[in-house]
Amino acid sequence: MTRLFNDPAVFADEMIEGFAAAAAAWVQPVPGGVVRSTRAATPSVAVVIGGGSGHYPAFGGLVGSGLAHGAAMGNLFASPSAQQVHSVAKAADQGRGILLAYGNYAGDVLNFDEAEARLTAEGHDVRTVVVTDDIWSAPSERRHQRRGIAGDLAVFKIAGAAAEAGYDLDEVERVATLANERTRSFGVAFSGCTLPGASAPLFTVPQGKMAVGLGIHGEPGIDEIPVPTADELAAMFVARLLEETPEGAGTRVVPLLNGLGGVKYEELFVVYRAVNRLLAERGLHVLEPEVGELCTSFDMAGCSLTLLWPDVELERLWTAPADAPAYRKGIAPQHERVIVPTHAADPDAIPVGSPESQRTAAIVGAALDAMAEAIDAAADELGRLDSVAGDGDHGIGMRRGVNAGRDAARAAIAAGAGAGTALTRCADAWSARAGGTSGAIWAAMLRELGGSLGDDTAPTRTDVAAGCSRARDAVMAFGKARVGDKTMVDAIVPFAETLNAAVADGRPLADAWSHAARAAQTAADRTADLAASLGRARSHGERSIGTPDPGAISFALLTRTVHTVLAEPQEEQ
Fold it and tell me: Range of 533's domain?
């Protein structure tokens, strides 16, 4: 378990600060992560990678010459926010375009896509390559749904080498895409990982058993089998991966044997001994293998094997020099030390709302205070629900988000903001601090509600109901989830529909909200009967039956909490 920490809520922030100080020869901190502290004389395409913290050397440890130019580093096991990705990408950009590369997880896709749209609107040329190497997370006919695990390194290394060689953005994107298409991974675990401050691991494996097909965020394996010998594990790895040899692959292969944090190098070498022999017996020529910790999961006892089948061009890029804090190959060129501007702008001035909207903003502030208290009390249970088929970070993310959002809204309200601005500031802070899927979704909802309430007048109950409908529509468009997918949408839709119907019937807002909150809770409870079909829990859909969706439960909890504030004596709108 993780033993050395101060406050678990700021573990990732303190870790990034310490990493940047220790690795100052390669990186410098910027808002949202790190970028290189050196730069070549000739500008290149900027390769920007990223994901949640807790996977070192991914992602910050892979920033350096011949590899990535920047890494957006989210909270523990949570994707970086769109603001973080945008900040890092702008700091890394050298004027020749930006390639975003990351593992295929719902929160990462949402936030990186939002950052890409913002960067494109600002005039940057941006492309994306999503890594999908984990063969156990989806069948071959749905490769686009597979997770990205230790195969990240193969894609990042080839993209970074191409940029270093002077490739333009089209060509960097092409070779990174080809590398992903030719990379396959398969992982196992003997025990789960424990996040800082947690009293138990995110999942457990029965004594004498091994979880097969695990994820790197604490997602449990797809199956459990008796623990094999090192040679038997190597045989399982090789046989299963070679079943998915890419079309057109040759006889040269790059093996990456990755330790997930709790398996020592000596053990990995024993496994690799057999991997190397088995590949040779199958007529394959091994090219510059890697054995060690490449993409970890805190103290998880486990390992994975990745195979990359390179063509001549990919082989040249894989073997090219690199020099990063946690990955070095050959003799990389020495670049000039620079201080990169971070483009961190001061927040816009707070517009002063009308007296009527300021009174509504005070209610918003009280509601956010109550929401923060409710999530603080429920965070551990939300994490437990999330750990059944997901990665167990929902409670942590919600706590970070709601507290940051409350603080930002309170600061805006103190400066005279109306309800719309207070909610918009709340949304920005919630997204930036929480990261992940839920951070992006709550930010979208709060922005839409803020847009309906505005800063100029006292909103009517119809305005509130319309804002909740806009929030529902934004979330469904954003994440593509529908009722029945076992997500937060299962609670959002009945809430918005019930609220609008009750308001249309002439009910006072507090009464209408009460009916809607009950509908949300009923729907959230019923998600226990559903199998997850989206997000990280998708690969454990059947395992999720019997446990309600944590996002739906937290949404229902907060709607009930807001009702306690609306029910207090106040002027009826």
Answer: 355-566
